[in-house]
Design a protein that fits this description.
Blueprint: H1 6-14, H2 19-31, E1 37-41, E2 43-44, E3 47-49, H3 54-63, E4 69-74, H4 84-92, H5 97-104, H6 112-118, H7 125-133, E5 149-151, E6 158-159, H8 160-171, E7 173-174, E8 177-183, H9 189-207, E9 210-216, E10 224-225, E11 243-244, H10 252-256, E12 262-265, H11 278-307, H12 312-322, H13 333-337, E13 341-348, E14 356-361, E15 367-372, H14 382-386, E16 390-399, E17 420-426, E18 429-435, E19 448-453
Parallel strand pairs: 2-3, 3-19, 4-8, 4-12, 8-9, 13-19
Antiparallel strand pairs: 1-14, 5-6, 7-8, 10-11, 12-16, 13-16, 14-15, 17-18
């Protein structure tokens, strides 16, 4: 067992961790994480429901005022990767396809109005890119995606943050309130506050709603220690230990703090302009309507069990047909039913990198529906990922309360073995980093899961800057 110094122990405690947790992390670096035991891809009729009809939309609209609804938006990451090719141009001086494409289409981007105000007279290509991504100008390369101008309208351009407010007003309304929670990096909090102060009064008036906006930061206690390539603790130049944010999955802690009956989850960069949003709104409501109906049945069964009048065969059939897990009459049916529920919108696989929905056999031998990412699949089985019919969820609807109205402790439904280890660097020195089980996959591995096909146009993430010129982000007014 590694011997930490008194200064190390103090640093660990100041970070909200304890020595036992860090020792377990060091052990995980040595042993690694097991690969998922993939049984088969989830497909229509075997783990995936066909697109839902508008009756689920109507059910949601008729019942949503009975639920406390929150829209949860992970928005803490900086947009550095989005501008990777532009930074490479600045570093090498060699023009690349992405940079040339941006330069050729500057006036089509929503950020052009801001950019042209900070450009020097007769700018060179380097001037333009530097003023876009560095602190010489807009500094987009260091900003979160939420605060970037995403969509160009004739009246006023909108940031990704603004688009989520617009979207929320169109499906996440309950009793006239739109509750939206953003996860934010501490250094960006002031920027969020400034944008919200400017646009909230206008949007409340426009949509006739009251916004309740809250924000949280990823908890330092969810960070993981970094190690050298020999799995000994990595130390900074001053001798201190290096702790790194443990990825998207750490946000299960933030989600766990949300007080809601129903939570919509959608990443900050997966947002459309007005004229491309119809399917998103309709299918968000449909997913939520289905979630409400399934939860209602679950609660009825649990109350029947309490009263001693439950039909066990009926419950087993319901679970096997609806809740993404295979059980028989010998299972602890109460434990299976009384878990958080998620209904996930998924799209057809179009070859994009990422994971997908699968039937996965757990350590207990039970098969359940899971999202598996490439890093969780053994190299010899990676073809099963490429051959999968569907892509990872684009939208989630979560029901985090039990049948007695109590909020589940979501941290108790995480599969801790579903993390992964990657190689990174710090100041030119290589290191190994650990990511917690992802929010969509390992962090929700023990939830009841429903997969539903949704249209391709409900998925329009902005991973690189050129995505903003894609069909899902062009404004047609």
């Amino acid at each position: 067992m590694y011997e930490f110094t008194p200064d190390d122990i103090q640093q660990i405690q100041n970070h909200g961790l304890n020595i036992d947790v860090v020792h377990r992390q060091l052990a995980d670096f040595v042993t690694g994480f097991p690969y998922a035991d993939i049984v088969r891809p989830a497909v229509i009729g075997d783990g995936v429901r066909e697109m839902l009809g508008d009756e689920f939309e109507r059910f949601y609209d008729e019942n949503r005022d009975n639920y406390k609804i929150v829209k949860f938006v992970p928005a803490s990451g900086a947009a550095t990767r989005m501008f990777k090719d532009l930074f490479e141009f600045l570093s090498s001086g060699v023009m690349n396809k992405t940079t040339q494409n941006v330069l050729d289409n500057l006036e089509k981007f929503a950020f052009w109005d801001d950019l042209k105000r900070v450009l020097p007279e007769n700018p060179t290509y380097r001037d333009v890119i530097e003023c876009l991504v560095t602190d010489r100008g807009l500094n987009y390369g260091a900003m979160p995606k939420a605060l970037l101008q995403f969509h160009k309208y004739s009246r006023a351009n909108r940031t990704a943050l603004a688009e989520h407010l617009v979207e929320g007003a169109q499906y996440a309304v309950s009793n006239g309130n739109v509750d939206i929670h953003f996860t934010v990096s501490p250094e960006h909090m002031a920027g969020f506050d400034a944008v919200l102060a400017r646009i909230l009064p206008e949007y409340e008036s426009k949509f006739g709603v009251n916004y309740n906006i809250s924000m949280s930061v990823q908890k330092a206690a969810t960070d993981t220690i970094a190690v050298n390539l020999d799995n000994t603790p990595f130390r900074n130049d001053d001798g201190s230990l290096l702790f790194r944010p443990a990825g998207h999955g750490a946000l299960i802690e933030n989600l766990n703090d949300i007080d809601a009956d129903l939570v919509f989850i959608k990443n900050i960069d997966n947002v459309c302009p007005d004229d491309a949003r119809h399917d998103t709104i309709a299918h968000k409501k449909r997913l939520a309507g289905l979630a409400m109906q399934i939860q209602k049945r679950i609660f009825e069964y649990l109350r029947a069990m309490d009263a001693g009048v439950a039909d066990v065969d009926e419950i087993v059939a319901f679970i096997n047909e609806n809740l993404g897990i295979v059980v028989d009459n010998s299972a602890d049916l109460r434990a299976v039913l009384n878990r958080p529920l998620r209904v996930c919108g998924i799209i057809k696989n179009t070859g994009e990198p990422g994971g997908g929905p699968f039937w996965v056999r757990g350590a207990d031998g039970v098969c359940s529906l899971q999202i598996s990412e490439p890093g969780q699949i053994a190299p010899e089985n990676i073809s099963i990922l490429k051959n999968g019919e569907f892509f990872s969820p684009t939208d989630l609807v979560c029901m985090p309360r039990d049948y007695q109205g109590k909020k589940f402790d979501l941290t108790q439904y995480v599969d801790p073995t579903a993390g992964f280890i990657s190689e990174k660097s710090k100041n030119g020195r290589p290191l190994r980093a650990m990511e917690r089980p992802g929010l969509w996959n390992g962090a929700m591995a023990k939830w009841n899961t429903v997969f539903v096909e949704t249209p391709l146009d409900t998925f329009a993430p902005v991973k690189v800057i050129s995505d903003l010129m894609g069909a899902g982000h062009r404004v047609n007014e």
